[in-house]
Amino acid sequence: MRYTPHTPADKERMLRTLELHSVEELYQHIPQTLRERAKIDLPRGLTEPAVRRRMASLAAQNAAAADWSFFLGGGIYHHFIPTAVDAIISRSEFSTSYTPYQPEVSQGTLQALFEYQTLICQLTGMEVANAGMYDGASAAAEAVLMSRRIQPSSKRRVLVSKALHPQYRAVIATYLRNLHDVHLEEISFDASGATDMAALMRHLDDQSMCVLVGYPNFFGVIEDLAPVKSACERVGAQLISVTTEPLALGLVKPPGEFGADIAVGEGQSLGIPMNLGGPAFGFFGCQRKFVRNIPGRLVGETVDTEGSRGFVLTLATREQHIRREKATSNICTSQTLCVLGATVFMSLLGKSGIKCLAETNVARAHDAHLRLVSKAKLEAVFSGPYFNEFVIRAKNLEDIFARCAAQKIVPGIKLGQWYPELQDCLLVCVTEMNEDEEIEQLVRTISRQ
Amino acid sequence: MSEPSHGSRRSRVPAPKLLFESGSPGRSALDWPAQDGPVEGSIPPALLRDDIPGFPELGELEVLRHFTCLSQRNFAIESQFYPLGSCTMKYNPKINEAVARLPGFAQVHPLASPELLQGALALLHDLEQILAEISAMECVSLQPSAGAQGELSGLMLIRAYLSEHGGPRKKIIVPDTAHGTNPASSTLCGYDVVQITSSTRGVIAASVIEKVMDQDVAAVMITNPNTLGLFETQIEAIAKVVHAKGGLVYLDGANLNALMGIAKPGHMGVDVLHMNLHKTFSTPHGGGGPGAGPVAVKAQLRDYLPVPRIFKHGDKFELQDDCPKSIGRVRSFFGNFGVLVRAYAYILSLGGDGLEEASRMALLNANYIRKKLEKSYQIAYDEPCMHECIFTDRVQHKNGVTTLDIAKRLLDYGYHPPTIYFPLVVSGALMIEPTETESPETLDGFIDAMLQIAQESKEDPELVKNAPYSTPVRRLDEARAARKPVLRWDPGSSSNT
After folding, report:
1. Which pLDDT tens digit goes with each residue over A1-42?
2. Which chain B residues contact residue A224 at CB under 8 A?
3. pLDDT (tens digit, 9 = 90+) per residue, A143-162?
4. Which pairing describes strands A299-303 and B171-175: parallel, antiparallel, or unpaired?
5. Please, what CATH class does the domain formed by B95-349 belong to?
6. Between residues 105 and 124 of chain A, which touch chain B (CB distance below 8 Å)?
7. Which end of chain B has fewer CB atoms within 10 angstroms, the N or the C?
8. Which of the listed CATH numbers 3.40.50.2300, 1.10.3520.10, 3.90.1150.10, 3.40.640.10 matches domain B353-481?
């Protein structure tokens, strides 16, 4: 049988050692009522070529970026991934190891995670970062839970910008649904596409626990976090910045420089394929004074008995396997292989490369925006500065989608599903992977009335 | 297997520098034409950053050499036997890796319209049905990112269901042998945890549940086989007790690898179950993720599953977000799709028969190790074991040798240690799970090493207590790491010379 190496002779020898006649005797203590119904009614196993064929035929029924022009963002981005990234994460020394509980034989994973934590600190401007979370949305939810651990019980109002990714807001609501002391409130956005400061000021009071703002937000708008931070400070609320497109941080001011208390986000842009949205990872940074309240794995530096530098999982007394019901979180994965991919990606790009790629995104997106407005006569919706995504209004979205589909183009994401007020609006994303001809074809296809 | 040296020094490869300690200003592996238009006009200067202090400046070969060097400082399934209990470190088939990288899976965007994702949705829908068949549950959601998130989702939907049927109740019963995630997830779901003690035979007695079960208990969380590797033989009786008082039974499916074709959770009276695809269904652990933790339920709980749900109408697969009773969304998009693709390929490869054989061989391997070591190490519970067996350090402790020392000495013999000091109810636990993908010769090699260490513990305990000798680093000072945490590189902060 595939993957089980036991020959009939092997089984016989092992059974002899056990003084048994059949493998079935090993589980005769399980009630017969269970055993007699346990047969798995699935087809026989397939050969490797047959598995390949079946999988290839399923894959062929999906629109892949290899054949289609995607102008799709909204939290998952089509970016260039250097071949070297997959070469490293395909190494079985990394991919087939477990959580590094035995540090002497896990220094590879541990050092890479330590380097990752450092890179996230540098990119976000935060003082500490953990080793990774499931995704950006659950990282945002965990940030709210962490704020609840830090803030006094008199502060339990959570203010979430409506310009934060709608799925992230949904996940935060799920995580909070059984914690009845916490109240979730949404803050509208203004004509620039940023969080409405006047509305935020109206909602902020001394019961406010934290404020969550997208940076860049769901509309691609780069919000100025400085006034948000000062407003938070006045009432003692924490500022949580949430980034769905971390490539932007290669260019824009990091949340740490605005004084964010916690900075979280989705890491997919940093070298992870789109994968229908997962697996990638969430990143989680905060100010050093909160480190004992942080969720998830942390890697720390130490020395061995001979004084050589080494790395270990640390501050484990926060975690579920030690603290059980008093743990800071129930999480026990750090999406390590994805985090490793991002570490390789950031190392390859480096300081100048990440800036260059970020600038390319800004330039291409602004170029596309200009052409869509001037040539295709679509209406710009928001006035705020943006990174690689923007919102435009079109009267005939269904028609545009149909014409684009015929050209194997997906022009963007319809916003009406989350925002009734943006029923006729489209979120368009342009990255370094959208060549000039693709942009031209998009504009031409939309212009053809 | 080669004889490990008696305390002789390993040949030391110098430790690799950190990424931040090499390179040169201006260096990058990215060769990308600079953009045309000025960025300054697009984004206000006040919102731009000047620099990313400390960020790497390396060439492509430097980066590859760095990470290749790091990889060589890891133990992994493909280089070593990895009998880590409760983690199911089975072989991760290569074909699964290849198909997960097909452009039609890896380069697919989650917010494209469902018409453009029919193959992916068909795969997810089929995987849901398959997992339901394996576990005898009615309905499955593939959304949870990992076992712990599956648990959280499962408890949330229990709470939502009970809230509509008289009230959410207050407590969750968790046995002392449970994974730490069980009580942690319960708290996150707003419940108090009541811990119960396993019997002297390592399993839960229905009579114990009967004593604590009342109208305040929402659910009992059971791991089966439990973390002692024992089948909870009274589970049906326990379920009757719980159901009679209006509670629900949650099964932690971490050890499902012991059950395929042997017993189905749905027949045991289980209402909610999570499965760890990175354990039972062979997806790689990746050094600590990504995994996937689907949650499965009986019919009455179906409407509470996380969104989005996938439905088939005629030949078309559709997504539904609008399910009023659902607990909502637990993460973005569609779970860890790439992991689900791998698990699906694994199930296709093995088929029903192959999955059943996998569980049978997992049991055979564990019992074989148990038999061969039972004279040299104390068995924690003298009961028939399933896919893993638990020993203690009681015999070796007489000479001052502890479970930690045994674990570290195993590294010198080239084996990854078992899970140690877990479950907490066993003092000095050594939890060994070989999985079905190991040959008897590999098991014999491991057994020899364990016997040798038992001998060394008698004759030269100091040798064992100072192990390991052959690893890239020696024992690490974990207390120091926690006392003054250094969690990132800073110029001049390093303790290395």
Report:
1. 689 999 999 999 999 999 999 999 999 999 999 999 999 999
2. 44, 46-47
3. 999 999 999 999 999 999 99
4. unpaired
5. alpha beta
6. 105-109, 111-112, 114-115, 117-119, 121-123
7. C
8. 3.90.1150.10
- Residue closest to B278 by CA, chosen among B83, B438, B76, B86: B86
The owner of tokens 């990175």 is B278
Q: Which residues contact B95 (CB under 8 A, 6 or more apart)?
A: A48, A51, A52, B345, B349
Q: What are the backbone angles phi and psi of residue A287, rounded to the nearest 5°?
A: -75, 150
Considering only the beta carbons, identify the residue of B16, B43, B262 that sits closest to A385.
B43
Q: Grade residue B2 by pLDDT with cuts at 50, 70 and 90.
A: very low
Question: Is the pLDDT at B11 greater than 60, yes or no?
Answer: no
pLDDT at A448: 77
- Tens digit of each residue's pLDDT (9 = 90 or more) over B422-450: 999 999 999 999 999 999 999 999 999 99
How far apart are alpha carbons A83 and A81 in whole angstroms? 6
Residues 6+ apart with CB under 8 A from B163: none
Query: Does an H or E element contain B175, and which?
Result: strand B171-175
ipTM topping 0.90: yes
Q: Residue B497: its pLDDT value, please?
A: 36
Contact residues for A245 (Cβ-Cβ < 8 A; gap 6+): A73, A75, A77, A216, A220, A266, A269, A387, A388, A389
Q: Which of B221, B163, B305 is nearest to A178 (CA)?
A: B163
- Alpha-carbon distance of A97 to A93, in angstroms, equals 6
CA separation for the pair A230, A183 (Å, rounded) = 22
Q: How far is B293 from chain A (nearest CA, A)?
A: 11
pLDDT-derived band of residue A334, with 50, 70 and 90 as boundaries? very high
Mean pLDDT of B339-358: 98
What is the pLDDT confidence band of residue A321, given thresholds at 50, 70 and 90? Answer: confident
8 Å CB contact between B74 and A93: yes
| Beta carbons of A269 and A246 less than 8 angstroms apart | yes
**In this complex, which of B27, B48, B122 lies closest to A350 when CB atoms are compared?**
B27
| Two tokens, residue B431 | 């939890």
Q: Taking 50 as the threshold, does the pLDDT of residue B1 lie above it?
A: no
A279: distance to nearest CA of chain B, Å?
A: 4
Q: What angle do CA A268, A270, A274 make, to 5 degrees?
A: 35
Residues 234 through 293 of chain A touching chain B, CB cutoff 8 Å: 249-254, 257, 266, 273-279, 281, 291
- Burial (CB count <10 Å: 0-12, 13-18, 19+), residue B362: buried
Burial of A89 (0-12, 13-18, 19+ CB in 10 A): buried
- A-chain residues near B120 (CB < 8 A): 58, 61-62, 276
The matching CATH number, chosen from 3.30.70.920, 3.40.640.10, 3.30.390.10, 3.40.50.360, for A84-344 is 3.40.640.10
Condensed to tens digits (0 to 9), the pLDDT of residues A355-389 reads 999 999 999 999 999 999 999 999 999 999 999 99
Domain ranges of chain A: 8-59, 69-81+354-447, 84-344
A177: pLDDT strictly greater than 80: yes
Which helix (DSSP H) or strand (DSSP E) does residue B253 occupy? strand B248-253
Residue-by-residue DSSP string for B110-158 = TTS-GGGBHHHHHHHHHHHHHHHHHHT-SEEE---SSHHHHHHHHHHHH
Domain locations in chain B as residue ranges: 95-349, 353-481
User: Nearest CB to A38: which of B264, B334, B365?
Assistant: B264
Report H helices in B234-319. Answer: 235-244, 277-280
Residue range A69-81+354-447 forms a domain whose CATH class is alpha beta
